[in-house]
Amino acid sequence: MRDWKLPWAGGCRCGRVRIEVSAPPLLAAACHCKGCQTMSASAYSLSIAIPAEGFVVTQGEPVVGGLQGPTRHFFCPFCKSWMFTRPEGLDWLVNLRPSMLDDHSWFVPFVETSTGAGLPWTRTPAKYSFAGEPELDRYQALVAEYAAEGAGPA
Prior knowledge:
Layout: E1 8-11, E2 18-21, E3 27-31, H1 34-40, E4 45-51, E5 55-59, E6 63-65, E7 72-75, E8 82-86, E9 93-96, E10 111-113, E11 128-129, H2 136-149
Parallel strand pairs: 3-10, 10-11
Antiparallel strand pairs: 1-2, 2-5, 3-4, 4-9, 6-7, 7-8, 8-9
């Protein structure tokens, strides 16, 4: 197991919303889907999957933005930074944008998903690449491998 040097602090660009992470991440990813391209105004979005019990908003009140459906994307109400996502049906999980951490220089995606929808010139140094989403039965092995060797703070 890695020493993740928790807790981590972070916040939005303007600093009005602050967060704390006290549980190790389950997986680090880059998503190339069209929705993430649009939401991030970039070639892909980055995320780290955090167990919900290890994630807390410590200051401010993020608001739901982006699509207004069962998957909720949370933003700072002032600077509009896309901070984290609570995926539909996965109440035990928070997908945090790693750039919201005060120190995210260590972040490297372990998997990249939806590369089939990605821009042809983009790839990341992720160890695993999937044209769509990995099959559900693959996640357990990916999470175990990331816990053993995934990039984290030195």
